Amino acid sequence: MLARANRRMTVDQFLKLYEGTEGKYELVNGQVYAMAGGTATHADVCGNIFAALRQKLRGSGCRPFNSDMGLTLTDESLRYPDVAVYCDPRDLQRNLREVRSFRFPKLIVEVLSPSTAEEDIGEKLLAYKRIDTVQAVVIVDPVDQTLELHERVAPDEWRHRILPPESGLSLRDPAVELGFHEIFASD
């Protein structure tokens, strides 16, 4: 994140004020932060994951969204995960032509960038784990080509694994598998 505005606001105020503006911003505890752009490698990996999930989840009742879709964490915090999967009717049965953020993800994927890695594996990860519907958070390092999986095993218990080199991703909920080359392909 690059810059912070001084005005404290709610998610609703933020969405109205920043609709159609140039650049990308997040709202964290009522404060607006400008987000930096990513590298081509970051964009490739995000696109690969989104495309693979979209194909594999078709007809399942779950839908992946890219970082254009906001995730409302609280009344004063809204993030844009790189990829998130939503299955909850409270999100998906709304008017998708108008909705700009959801609240009930099942899976969140963050692809690391040098400028945001510390926050992604720190503050964001903790916030994502506090969402009752989240079953897994995946941290992807596009440079080292590694995967870190945080899976919910009980309401307040998480299992953390760094997956072996060149392994794919196998999730319980949503039940989906992504191969290593599906995630990290660059062509």
Distance between the termini: 29 Å
How would you sum up the major sheet? 6 strands, mixed
Q: Helix coverage percent of residues? A: 25-40%
Which radius of gyration do the C-alpha atoms yield? 16 Å
By CATH, the topology is tt1808, chain A
Total number of strands = 13
Shape: globular
What is the total domain count?
A: 1
At the first level of CATH, the class is: Alpha Beta
Proportion of residues in extended strands: 25-35%
**How many individual helices?**
5
Average pLDDT number: 91
Question: Can you tell me the CATH architecture?
Answer: Alpha-Beta Complex
Q: What is the strand arrangement across the widest sheet?
A: 3-6-8-9-10-11
Structural class: alpha+beta
Topology (SSEs and partners):
Layout: H1 11-18, E1 25-28, E2 31-34, H2 40-57, E3 63-66, E4 70-74, E5 77-79, E6 83-86, H3 89-92, E7 101-102, E8 105-111, H4 117-129, E9 136-141, E10 146-154, E11 157-162, E12 169-171, E13 176-178, H5 180-184
Parallel strand pairs: 4-7, 8-9
Antiparallel strand pairs: 1-2, 3-6, 4-5, 6-8, 9-10, 10-11, 12-13
Keywords:
6-stranded mixed beta sheet, 5 helices, 187 residues, 3-stranded mixed beta sheet, alpha+beta, tt1808, chain A, 26% helix
